[in-house]
Amino acid sequence: MAALRLGDTAPDFTASTSEGTLNFYDYLGDGWGILFSHPADFTPVCTTELGTAAKFKGEFDKRNVKMMALSVDGAESHKEWIKDINETQNTVVNFPIIADEDKKVSDLYDMIHPNANDTLTVRSVFIIGPDKKVKLILTYPASTGRNFYELLRVVDSLQLTSNHKVATPANWKNGEKVVVSPAIPTEEAKQIFSGGVEEVKPYLRLTPDPTA
Ligand code: BEZ
User: Which residues form the Thioredoxin domain (predicted)?
Assistant: First the structure.
Protein backbone atom coordinates (compact mmCIF):
# COMPACT_ATOMS: atom_id res chain seq x y z
CA MET A 1 0.00 0.00 0.00
CA ALA A 2 1.10 3.58 -0.65
CA ALA A 3 2.73 5.44 2.23
CA LEU A 4 0.38 7.45 4.41
CA ARG A 5 0.33 11.21 3.99
CA LEU A 6 -1.04 14.08 6.03
CA GLY A 7 -4.81 14.30 5.71
CA ASP A 8 -5.20 10.60 4.92
CA THR A 9 -7.50 8.51 7.08
CA ALA A 10 -5.46 6.61 9.68
CA PRO A 11 -6.01 2.90 8.97
CA ASP A 12 -8.00 1.08 11.64
CA PHE A 13 -6.79 -2.30 12.94
CA THR A 14 -7.34 -4.84 15.65
CA ALA A 15 -4.11 -6.06 17.24
CA SER A 16 -2.67 -8.07 20.09
CA THR A 17 -1.08 -5.71 22.63
CA SER A 18 0.52 -5.80 26.06
CA GLU A 19 -2.99 -5.01 27.39
CA GLY A 20 -4.85 -7.67 25.34
CA THR A 21 -6.52 -7.46 21.96
CA LEU A 22 -7.51 -3.90 21.11
CA ASN A 23 -9.24 -2.18 18.22
CA PHE A 24 -7.46 1.07 17.42
CA TYR A 25 -10.53 3.21 16.65
CA ASP A 26 -12.38 1.91 19.74
CA TYR A 27 -9.31 2.67 21.84
CA LEU A 28 -9.10 6.23 20.48
CA GLY A 29 -12.82 6.90 20.87
CA ASP A 30 -13.56 10.45 19.77
CA GLY A 31 -10.28 11.90 21.04
CA TRP A 32 -6.80 12.37 19.62
CA GLY A 33 -4.22 9.60 19.23
CA ILE A 34 -0.49 9.13 19.00
CA LEU A 35 0.88 5.93 17.52
CA PHE A 36 4.63 5.37 17.67
CA SER A 37 6.84 2.47 16.70
CA HIS A 38 10.01 1.05 18.26
CA PRO A 39 12.64 -1.11 16.58
CA ALA A 40 12.62 -3.93 19.14
CA ASP A 41 12.04 -4.96 22.76
CA PHE A 42 14.92 -4.93 25.26
CA THR A 43 16.83 -2.19 23.43
CA PRO A 44 18.29 0.77 25.29
CA VAL A 45 16.91 3.79 23.43
CA CYS A 46 13.41 2.30 23.24
CA THR A 47 13.53 1.57 26.97
CA THR A 48 14.16 5.26 27.71
CA GLU A 49 11.50 6.36 25.22
CA LEU A 50 8.77 4.16 26.69
CA GLY A 51 9.68 5.25 30.22
CA THR A 52 9.51 8.88 29.10
CA ALA A 53 6.20 8.33 27.32
CA ALA A 54 4.75 6.83 30.52
CA LYS A 55 5.84 9.91 32.48
CA PHE A 56 4.22 12.18 29.86
CA LYS A 57 0.91 10.30 29.89
CA GLY A 58 -0.67 12.78 32.32
CA GLU A 59 0.10 15.63 29.91
CA PHE A 60 -1.29 13.71 26.95
CA ASP A 61 -4.40 12.83 29.01
CA LYS A 62 -5.00 16.54 29.71
CA ARG A 63 -5.05 17.07 25.96
CA ASN A 64 -7.35 14.07 25.35
CA VAL A 65 -4.60 12.18 23.48
CA LYS A 66 -4.35 8.39 23.83
CA MET A 67 -0.95 6.77 23.30
CA MET A 68 -0.26 3.42 21.64
CA ALA A 69 3.23 2.07 20.98
CA LEU A 70 4.33 -0.76 18.67
CA SER A 71 7.19 -3.15 18.27
CA VAL A 72 7.42 -6.30 16.20
CA ASP A 73 8.04 -8.58 19.21
CA GLY A 74 5.31 -10.62 20.91
CA ALA A 75 2.99 -9.68 23.79
CA GLU A 76 4.77 -11.92 26.33
CA SER A 77 8.08 -10.31 25.41
CA HIS A 78 6.49 -6.86 25.80
CA LYS A 79 5.23 -7.77 29.29
CA GLU A 80 8.71 -8.87 30.40
CA TRP A 81 10.28 -5.78 28.87
CA ILE A 82 7.72 -3.51 30.60
CA LYS A 83 8.99 -4.86 33.95
CA ASP A 84 12.47 -3.67 33.00
CA ILE A 85 11.17 -0.30 31.79
CA ASN A 86 9.27 0.25 35.03
CA GLU A 87 12.29 -0.73 37.08
CA THR A 88 14.98 1.18 35.20
CA GLN A 89 12.98 4.29 34.26
CA ASN A 90 11.23 4.54 37.64
CA THR A 91 7.75 4.62 36.14
CA VAL A 92 4.78 2.45 35.24
CA VAL A 93 4.07 1.88 31.55
CA ASN A 94 0.43 2.87 31.37
CA PHE A 95 -0.52 2.48 27.70
CA PRO A 96 -0.61 -0.51 25.33
CA ILE A 97 2.27 -1.71 23.17
CA ILE A 98 1.19 -3.50 20.01
CA ALA A 99 2.76 -6.94 19.51
CA ASP A 100 3.13 -6.70 15.75
CA GLU A 101 4.78 -10.06 15.10
CA ASP A 102 3.07 -10.47 11.73
CA LYS A 103 3.96 -6.82 10.87
CA LYS A 104 0.36 -6.11 9.91
CA VAL A 105 0.23 -2.70 11.57
CA SER A 106 3.82 -1.86 10.60
CA ASP A 107 2.88 -2.47 6.97
CA LEU A 108 -0.37 -0.49 7.22
CA TYR A 109 1.58 2.50 8.55
CA ASP A 110 4.73 1.94 6.45
CA MET A 111 6.90 1.69 9.57
CA ILE A 112 9.49 -0.64 8.03
CA HIS A 113 11.97 1.15 5.81
CA PRO A 114 13.91 -1.71 4.18
CA ASN A 115 16.94 0.37 3.25
CA ALA A 116 17.36 1.28 6.93
CA ASN A 117 16.48 -2.17 8.28
CA ASP A 118 14.43 -4.80 6.48
CA THR A 119 12.87 -6.42 9.55
CA LEU A 120 12.64 -3.85 12.35
CA THR A 121 10.43 -0.77 12.44
CA VAL A 122 11.97 2.69 12.40
CA ARG A 123 10.86 5.26 15.00
CA SER A 124 7.65 6.48 13.38
CA VAL A 125 5.20 8.86 15.03
CA PHE A 126 1.66 9.49 13.83
CA ILE A 127 -0.62 12.02 15.47
CA ILE A 128 -4.24 11.34 14.62
CA GLY A 129 -7.12 13.78 15.05
CA PRO A 130 -10.62 13.10 16.39
CA ASP A 131 -11.69 12.87 12.73
CA LYS A 132 -9.23 9.93 12.36
CA LYS A 133 -7.15 11.89 9.86
CA VAL A 134 -3.36 11.85 10.05
CA LYS A 135 -2.21 15.25 11.37
CA LEU A 136 1.54 14.66 11.79
CA ILE A 137 4.09 12.13 10.58
CA LEU A 138 7.63 12.03 11.95
CA THR A 139 10.27 9.43 11.20
CA TYR A 140 13.42 9.05 13.30
CA PRO A 141 16.25 6.58 12.85
CA ALA A 142 16.76 3.75 15.33
CA SER A 143 19.77 5.52 16.80
CA THR A 144 17.89 8.69 17.83
CA GLY A 145 15.43 8.74 20.71
CA ARG A 146 12.44 11.02 20.25
CA ASN A 147 11.75 14.29 22.06
CA PHE A 148 8.39 13.95 23.82
CA TYR A 149 8.31 17.67 24.63
CA GLU A 150 8.21 18.23 20.87
CA LEU A 151 5.31 15.80 20.48
CA LEU A 152 3.34 17.63 23.18
CA ARG A 153 4.22 20.96 21.53
CA VAL A 154 2.86 19.73 18.19
CA VAL A 155 -0.34 18.50 19.86
CA ASP A 156 -0.76 21.96 21.42
CA SER A 157 -0.27 23.58 18.02
CA LEU A 158 -2.63 21.17 16.25
CA GLN A 159 -5.35 21.64 18.85
CA LEU A 160 -5.01 25.43 18.85
CA THR A 161 -4.95 25.77 15.07
CA SER A 162 -7.88 23.41 14.59
CA ASN A 163 -10.06 25.74 16.72
CA HIS A 164 -8.71 29.19 15.78
CA LYS A 165 -7.68 30.89 12.53
CA VAL A 166 -4.01 30.94 13.49
CA ALA A 167 -0.76 29.08 12.85
CA THR A 168 2.22 28.71 15.20
CA PRO A 169 5.68 30.10 14.38
CA ALA A 170 9.10 28.47 14.69
CA ASN A 171 9.89 27.14 18.16
CA TRP A 172 6.47 28.28 19.38
CA LYS A 173 5.43 27.13 22.81
CA ASN A 174 2.00 27.11 24.42
CA GLY A 175 0.99 30.63 25.48
CA GLU A 176 3.35 32.49 23.12
CA LYS A 177 2.23 34.78 20.27
CA VAL A 178 0.84 33.08 17.19
CA VAL A 179 0.54 34.16 13.57
CA VAL A 180 -2.76 35.04 11.96
CA SER A 181 -3.77 32.59 9.27
CA PRO A 182 -2.68 33.96 5.84
CA ALA A 183 -6.26 33.53 4.58
CA ILE A 184 -7.58 36.24 6.96
CA PRO A 185 -7.25 39.89 5.82
CA THR A 186 -5.74 42.12 8.52
CA GLU A 187 -8.92 44.21 8.96
CA GLU A 188 -10.93 41.06 9.56
CA ALA A 189 -8.23 39.70 11.89
CA LYS A 190 -8.57 42.84 14.02
CA GLN A 191 -12.25 42.05 14.50
CA ILE A 192 -11.58 38.40 15.36
CA PHE A 193 -8.63 38.72 17.76
CA SER A 194 -9.48 40.80 20.82
CA GLY A 195 -5.83 40.76 21.94
CA GLY A 196 -4.87 42.92 18.95
CA VAL A 197 -3.01 42.25 15.70
CA GLU A 198 0.55 43.40 15.08
CA GLU A 199 1.24 43.72 11.35
CA VAL A 200 4.98 43.11 10.85
CA LYS A 201 4.42 42.64 7.11
CA PRO A 202 1.08 42.33 5.31
CA TYR A 203 1.66 38.56 5.27
CA LEU A 204 3.12 38.31 8.80
CA ARG A 205 0.65 39.29 11.49
CA LEU A 206 1.08 38.35 15.14
CA THR A 207 -1.57 38.06 17.82
CA PRO A 208 -1.54 36.79 21.39
CA ASP A 209 -2.51 33.13 21.87
CA PRO A 210 -6.34 33.44 21.67
CA THR A 211 -6.74 30.84 24.44
CA ALA A 212 -4.27 32.42 26.90
C1 BEZ B 1 17.55 1.12 20.79
O2 BEZ B 1 16.34 1.24 21.00
O3 BEZ B 1 18.36 1.32 21.67
C4 BEZ B 1 18.03 0.72 19.44
C5 BEZ B 1 17.29 -0.14 18.66
C6 BEZ B 1 17.77 -0.52 17.42
C7 BEZ B 1 18.99 -0.01 16.98
C8 BEZ B 1 19.71 0.87 17.77
C9 BEZ B 1 19.23 1.24 19.01
Answer: 4-160
Closest among 177, 170, 175 to 199, alpha carbons compared: 177
Which of 35, 46, 125, 158 is labelled catalytic? 46
125: left (phi over 0), alpha (psi -120 to 50) or beta: beta
| Pair 122, 37: CB distance under 8 Å | yes
- Which domains are present in the chain? 8-146 (3.40.30.10), 164-207 (3.30.1020.10)
Q: What is the pTM of this model?
A: 0.96
- What DSSP character marks residue 19? T
pLDDT at 84 over 70: yes
Report the separation in Å between the CA atom of 141 and the middle of ligand 1, taken as the mean of its atom positions.
9
User: How many A from CA of 190 to the centre of ligand 1?
Assistant: 50
Residue 2 has pLDDT above 90, yes or no: no
Give catalytic status of residue 46 as yes or no: yes
